[in-house]
Amino acid sequence: MSSSISSSVISPRSSAELTALESSFAQVVEALLRQAESGEFLTIKLSSERSQFVRFNQAKVRQIGNVADGSLKLTLIRDQRTSYRTFPLTGDLEVDLQQAQLALADLRQAVPQLPIDPYLVIPAGTSTSHDVHLGQLLAPEAVTSTVLPIVAELDFAGLYAAGLLVRGYADSSGQKHWFATDSFALDYSLFGTGGEAAKGTLAGSTWDTEAYKTQIEESKAQLQLLSTSPKQLSRGQYRTYFAPAAIAELVGMLSWGGISEAALQQGNSALKELRRGQKRLSPRFTLKENFQHGLVPRFNEWGETAPIELPLIVAGELVNTLVSDRTAKEYGLAANGAGGSEGLRSPEISAGGLAREQILAELGTGLYVSNLHYLNWSDRPTGRITGMTRYACFWVENGEIVAPIENLRFDESLYRFWGENLIDCTNFQEFIPEVGTYGGRQLGGCWVPGMLVEGFTYTL
């Protein structure tokens, strides 16, 4: 059994809520597992949050609220067939047990009518873990008085989301996992009088007012540069510096037909030429899954635990892929704790040697790209990605920012921009969080450096 608790000060309120939630989960799990019949396998998964949301517009609070939510997903496996039901975890034991029993009864009726799944994953093992990472967040009543004075004279819009995120897992084979983390994310934009915008994100488990002030100052400087007339560029290839937020968007594409073993086996992966040794990436490019940051649970939807670190691409060579238990069963491989989608959960790209103060000088003449969006594969077999620049992107001449640029579309192969055209990575990394809130606050993010690339292709 593994257990870790951060050294940060634990809020008594957070600690009490967490204890009560874990107790409720344990009681429902115990009651369900007692009812499991011979030949049945049960998995019970908890997803819960205790969150505060504050929406800002024009440096004023426009919406504020708190969410206390939790749901259980009960899965029944029998005779190579499976189905699941989801229901709320209220904390009222009588209500929760009744809902759990109704869900189990419903599943027992539904499962025999379903087709056999030859690659169905049946939970096995008795691994357990208990990881709690509680931080130091702003007190709910202090959010507006901390955030707004610094931006009072600016056209500031954004969303602050913070609080406790919890994931739990238990099954009839004896596996049991518990993960909880405090986190916050302030995702904001500053707008100029001409509609130009500079975007920023501050996130973590410990609020730092000085870091917030510094980031706002950087965004203000970008906004000032954006107020000048934009430079129109013709299509072509340009030396380009990609800030960490832009690199995070590119890394995300590897979770969609990239680093997945199933995608490689089925011929749908953008990395198949790398796998076959037909192409390679730059020796400056190294990617791994790193769960040491405590941002996401190591266990997946079957209770399997991923290695604390898993190297994927080392010095340009593919050394591992993400292999789920289902894929392992289908292709006769060894699983490594990947989730069912075989996407990245806690990615990190290694830093390089480019110092922050040398970025513009090393760029020389070319593009400084702060953000990207609308990414998609334009030709997945060759690793080609298309997308657009977004927010605070500039034309640089002789190491000096000259003017902002109009949005550009790009179309380029990862074998070029992470291969022969990768000049260097920065000697620092930034944490780029997942800020989605659809259906609940998202866990995690990625640790990435900035990158300087030669001859990046812009098509429109």
Low-confidence region ranges: 1-12
**Overall pLDDT metric:** 93
The backbone outline, from C-alpha atoms, is: globular
Radius of gyration: 24 Å
Q: How is the biggest beta sheet arranged? A: 8 strands, mixed
Distance from N terminus to C terminus (CA atoms, Å) equals 55 Å
Report the portion of residues in β strands: 35-45%
Helix content: 10-25%
Instruction: Output the structural class.
Output: alpha+beta
Instruction: Tally the beta strands.
Output: 23
Tally of helical segments: 10
In short:
It is globular, with a radius of gyration of 24 Å. It is 22% helix and 37% strand.
Describe, in plain words, how this protein is organized in 3D.
The protein has 460 residues and is of the alpha+beta class. It is built from 10 helices and 23 strands. It has helices at 12-34, 93-110, 143-147, 209-226, 244-252, 261-265, 272-275, 325-331, 359-363, 414-420, and strands at 2-5, 40-57, 60-78, 81-88, 128-133, 155-171, 176-191, 197-204, 236-242, 287-290, 309-314, 317-318, 347-349, 366-369, 371-379, 384-390, 394-397, 400-404, 409-413, 422-425, 430-433, 445-448, 451-458. Strands 1, 2, 3, 4, 5, 6, 7 and 8 form an 8-stranded mixed sheet that branches. The chain has a 6-stranded mixed sheet with strand order 18-17-14-9-23-20. Strand 11 and strand 12 form a beta hairpin. Helix 1 crosses helix 2 (93-110). It starts with a strand and ends with a strand. The model is unreliable at 1-12 (pLDDT under 50).
